[in-house]
Amino acid sequence: MDWKGRKILITGGNGFIGSHLVEYFVNKRARVRVLVRPSSGSYVDNSRVLARIYHLLDKIEVIWGDVTSLSSVLCAMQGTEYVFHMAGQTHVALSRLIPNETVFANVIGTFNVLEAARYLGVGAVVIPSSDKAYSEPYLLPIPEYAPFRSNSPYDASKAAADQIAMAYFRSYALPVAILRLTNVYGSRQLTTKVIPKFIVSALRDQTLEVYVRSDGKASRRDFLFIDDALDAIVRSVENINYCAGTPINIGSSQSTDIKELALVIIDAVGKGRIKEMRTREAEIEIPDEYVAIDRARELLGWVPTTSLREGIEKTCEWYRAEIPYRE
């Protein structure tokens, strides 16, 4: 698909995945508009809110607003053809502290995007969901037909958003792609997430704390490199006639032990060490989680092409250049 001149809206385009999408479409010479929520704290300069896309500001249009406001979304979406809804509250642990904000951002925000898209008649909407919607899996790898068993407000918010998106397809034939992404990693990610947190610790030659259960085992997770995630997101629009209204898992289709992950990072960086930590949080975490990607292969012609080692090395290069640390 030729994206040159196409009018695109990316909500949350200043975020981790959103900023990479902005960069991708700018490079494809699309006309990119970004909906960004301004800082609510006076101590944070709004220029910092745009830090991830600062180098692209002369090539995009920035609209200040909030997806929890339907009027903001309608204003931002006017005149666009394709919508990529990347805004939301993405932290599981934080959702337990701010359930209200999580539901408003992830559920009401998604509803507003879908309702505005229906009213304005856009060509396609992409709703990036999460494998956390499944929460505790009863079958591995997790298929799309697995039931939702929410353990946190975040899990429930993603499950609810998925259901609303499917309802808009069935009720209004809205061309919406629903992608359940696993743990995406890469450059520009906040260091509260496990991979950048481990990388920065290793670069500083610090201890990488791996949380293990009483049996000495760490959780296993499905990690997906940002380039592979972008490829799937773009393909979902290019194949919207085949995938609209159908939830699709997007992941590596394999699980990695968190301890193994730490070792890969230490090897890539060349320093750092592991310390096992036994905590209550480790006991209640889901032991193993990875998704089946047969539907993505069938409907999108998509498979991930970046190995964990390759993705970690590329990510380490970025943090080595961007994050100050002590030799």
Describe this structure in a few short sentences.
The chain has 327 residues and is an alpha/beta fold.
The description of the largest β-sheet is:
7 strands, parallel
Mean of all residue-level pLDDT scores: 93
Q: What shape does the CA trace take?
A: globular
The percentage of residues in β strands lies in 15-25%
Q: What is the N-to-C order of secondary-structure elements (H for helix, E for strand)? A: EHEHEHEHHEHEEHEEEHHEEHEHHH
Separate helix tally: 13
Corresponding CATH architecture of the domain at 7-184 and 223-253 and 291-305: 3-Layer(aba) Sandwich
Class based on secondary structure composition and strand pairing: alpha/beta
The amount of helix comes to: 40-55%
Name of the CATH first level of the domain at 7-184 and 223-253 and 291-305: Alpha Beta
CATH topology call of the domain at 7-184 and 223-253 and 291-305: Rossmann fold
Point out poorly predicted stretches: none
What is the CATH superfamily classification of the domain at 7-184 and 223-253 and 291-305? NAD(P)-binding Rossmann-like Domain
Number of strands: 13
